[in-house]
Structures are given as C-alpha cells and as structure tokens.
Amino acid sequence: MIPNRYQMKNKLEDVTPTVMSLKADVCVALGASTTVRFEICLSEALTNVVKHAQPTTPDELIDVTVQETSDAISVEIFDPAGAVPFDLRDHAHDLETIDPLAESGRGLGVIMQCADALDYGPSGDRNRLILTFIKAIQ
Amino acid sequence: MIHTTFYDPNITVVRPGVERLTAINAKAFKEDVADLINGGATQLIIDFRDVAFLDSSGLGALVGVLKKIGHRGDLVVSGLNSDVQQMFRICRMDRVFKVYSDVDTAVQTMAETQ
C-alpha cells in the first residue's frame, strides 16, 4: 500500500528527501524504467514550485498526495497557499527546439516529457498539478 | 565541492563531489569549474562516476561551463550511469557533449587529440 500524503517545506533542501520518499514508495509498482522518469519529473516539478510559487508566507507547506489505481499512479502537487496559478503547459519549451546552449528553461519541458499524463487546475482554495505514470505490466 | 585530478598534458578531471547535482548545488558547481577555467584549465573532463542523479539545473550548469571554455579548449563528460544518461537523452544533451564510458578512456582520447 503506497502512503497517500506527503508534505514538504517550501525549500529546495526539502525537494530531494521528498522525491526519495516518493520514489521508494512507488518504484515497485512503476518498474525501473518508469521510476527513472518519475524521479526526474517529481524533482523538476517540486523544484519549480519552490523556486517560482510565491505563497502568502514563506512557511506555507507544499502538499503532495498519491492516488493509485489498477494501472497508474497519480501524484498531486498542491501549490502552497497564496501562490499565483501557473499552468506549466502554457510555458514549457519543446526540448527538441530549445537552444542546445541555453543554461535554463528545460525543466518544464522535462516535466511534460517524463509524465504519461499531466493536468493542472484549481482544487479547493489552491491549485494542483497532477502527474500520472502508467504502472509496469506485472 | 568539486574534486580535481590533473593529468598531462594539461587535462583536468573534475568530479562534482555530490551524489545529486541539482538546483540546490548547481550554481556552486558551475562557479567552482569556472574558477578552474579562469585559472588556466582548458581540457576538462567532468566525471559523473559518483553522481547518481542530475536535474535540468545541473545540466544547465554543465552547459554554462561548456560555453565558458568555448574555443579555448574542450570539455567532455564521462562515467554517466543509466539514469544520468537518460536525463542527457531527454534534454538532447547527448548531441551537445562528447560522452565517454569512463574517465580513463576520456583522458586517453583527449591526450591523443591534443
């Protein structure tokens, strides 16, 4: 049974421990190949929230929940309270066409490429990014 | 942060010195390698043997040092594990960097082409 709820501080230092916990909990269900994409995707997504969301106060937490179905795992990342809505689908650069010598601007494209499905929108009083990964065939 | 080893002729092997090169330490990595370049290093091998994970910020830092060295020298990478290789492929960085399986091969090839 995969734990359902995770919570992290709005700090870069908290990204890796959160990603590692999530990875450890989903790796069996996802299989090795998808787990690599999962780790990359979650690392980029959580880093993006920490770097760019501007919550009401710095202490606002980032909530992460995991939903498991028979064929997929979906991770919901809730922006901290007060953050301006940011739909990365409107801002992501195509990794095929981005300047190869650009030093930034790949993260959103990486999220788009690594998740099997992606959605973003309001949920209650906050906004939520949903990243879905198809489970490995058992 | 970084660990350096020097080989003749003027080849510098850099190990990032972290298990995960990410947004939290990419800037320090870039600054450390830039200091090496400012100090005269022109033939650089970034050895990822001990790096388990790399994110887009880490790749951005790597691109930054490649641009800094520019036409003054060469920068190649070695020792990518399968996860880091996949990140290179996702970001099309396998088209930008010369990649060697291990640091010894990289040193030998770089020495032969000078």
Describe this protein with a few key phrases.
heterodimer, A: 138 residues, alpha+beta, Heat Shock Protein 90, B: 114 residues
The name of the CATH topology of chain B is: Transcription Regulator spoIIAA
Q: Got a strand count of chain A? A: 5
CATH superfamily of chain A: Histidine kinase-like ATPase, C-terminal domain
Report the order of strands and helices of chain B.
EEEHEEHEHEH
Helical percentage of chain B: 40-55%
CA-based gyration radius of chain A: 15 Å
* Sheet/helix structural class of chain A: alpha+beta
By DSSP, the count of extended strands of chain B is 7
CATH architecture of chain A: 2-Layer Sandwich
Shape of chain A: globular
What sort of overall outline of chain B do the alpha carbons produce when their principal axes are compared? globular
In summary, what is this structure?
The complex is a heterodimer of chains A (138) and B (114). By secondary structure, chain A is of the alpha+beta class.
Describe the structure.
The complex is a heterodimer of chains A (138) and B (114). With 138 residues, chain A is an alpha+beta fold. Chain A has one domain (5-134): Histidine kinase-like ATPase, C-terminal domain (Heat Shock Protein 90, 2-Layer Sandwich). Helices cover 33% and strands 25% of the residues of chain A. A 5-stranded antiparallel sheet of chain A has the order 1-2-3-5-4, covered by helices on one side. In chain A, strand 4 and strand 5 form a beta hairpin. In chain A, helix 1 (15-30) packs antiparallel against helix 2 and helix 2 runs antiparallel to helix 3. Chain B is α/β, with parallel strands linked by helices and 114 residues long. Chain B has helices at residues 26-38, 56-69, 82-90, 103-112; strands spanning 3-7, 11-15, 20-21, 43-47, 53-54, 74-78, 98-100. In chain B, helix 1 runs parallel beside helix 2. The longest helix of chain B is centred in the middle third of the chain and has 14 residues, at 56-69. The interface between A and B is medium-sized, with 24 and 25 residues.
